[in-house]
Amino acid sequence: MATLKEFEEALREHGMHMALALLERLRERDRQTRTIRPARRITGQKMTPDLARAILELHASTGMTQQEIAFKVGVNQGRVNEVIKRGKWLDDDPHAPEAVARDKAKARMRADPKPQPRPRAKPLARKEAPRAAKKPAAPQGQFAFGDL
């Protein structure tokens, strides 16, 4: 498939000046109707229990898609999905997994020292069989054109 520039060059090579004039007129029309539109949203809303309940209400009472709900309330579609499918963000519990993840992300953004890590369970020791020494690979020959 050719690009518009390649198409224009082909028209020029074949001397199709009427087609080039038509193409230029279409470009000029597009320039006149083109506008600079503001972005849909500059920053996302902070997820709160009230906002989560509003998302659930919109989902239950309208036929809107998750993307439409996200655009309306000012969050991304992934957050809407978390609220609808997993019931996240419905309470103010600071120990909820999503709140802990949010706080860790904020700490990373501020370049604060890492929060206290949770104690990890010790890995289970596996009994391994003694490893056999690796045998050196046998040399492989190469054929030349005259060998066959």
What do these coordinates show?
By secondary structure, this protein is mainly α. 49% of the residues lie in helices and 0% in strands. It contains six helices and no strands. Helix 3 packs across helix 4 and helix 4 crosses helix 5. The longest helix is centred in the first third of the chain and has 17 residues. The chain is flat, with a radius of gyration of 31 Å. It starts with a helix and ends in a 38-residue tail after the last helix.
Brief write-up:
This protein is mainly alpha-helical.
Most strands sheet? none
> Percent helix among the residues?
40-55%
Mean pLDDT equals 79
User: Could you say which structural class the secondary elements and strand pairing correspond to?
Assistant: mainly alpha
Q: Which word captures the global form?
A: flat
The DSSP helix count reads: 6
Distance between the termini: 46 Å
Query: What share of the residues does DSSP label as strand, in percent?
Result: under 5%
H-E order: HHHHHH
Number of strands: 0
**Uncertain runs:** none
Rounded to an integer in angstroms, the radius of gyration calculated over CA atoms is 31 Å
